[in-house]
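Notes from the 1:1 (GR / supervisor)

We went over the backlog. Supervisor wanted to see one worked example end to end before approving the batch request, so GR pasted a single chain during the call. The sequence is below; no edits were made to it. Supervisor asked that the structure be written out right there so they could see what the output format looks like.
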Amino acid sequence: MSKQDESRREFLVRAAVGAGAVAGAGLVPDALAQKQEPDKQTKPQASEHAPSSGGQPGIHSPLDGHGAFFNHDQAATVAAFAERLMPSAPGKPGARDAGVVNYIDLALAGAYADLQDFYRRGIAQLDGYCRATYHSPFSQLNAAQQDEVIAALENGKVGGFTWPTAQAFFNTLRTHTMEGMFADPVYGGNQNFAGWRLVGFPGAQAIFTPADMQNKQAFTRAPIVGLQARVKVPKQGA
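Structure output shown during the call:
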């Protein structure tokens, strides 16, 4: 893992903690929470990827769960971009491990529906620039090339972008990557509580012991509890 990867991961983790992202859905707007509750019956993929308390992690491909909004190529671009923003490392999950692309996909089909054209145009402009510069779409570039493109986007030095601007697209994808890493798994990301485990956030625990309250180390007691485990399921025939 390069020093650049390490610094990028450290920045996102520190930014997320500083913004209160680990506090359940701290980075997720209320509209998303309101949208996802009724959508559980019609869009089960959000809950399928959110483990129950004490559940074992599933095995998913990097693009599992997309299809609510993204097509395969769009999902591949967003998944690759998010992974370079939050790269995995030995013992440390990255954006692919956490299912960030699934979170963004579900959000764009729901609470973030007003950003659908923003993403369509942004992805098309990004891949257009990559094809013109490297003769391949973003998802097929090597890590060094992807980092060059991301740095250029962040600094507004990418040609071919009109709307959204390169910087606006970068900032939005970075914010949504943070949300997908650290929001409650019920929203489709943070699979197996990957982001919460990374920062030692305990989730929606019913009770904390005196030792828990005094401990200054990362929280490790299992199970970590998310919102899904606290939802009361109505009995059949009720």
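Supervisor's comment: Residues 19-27, 29-63 have pLDDT under 50 and may be disordered.
Batch request approved.
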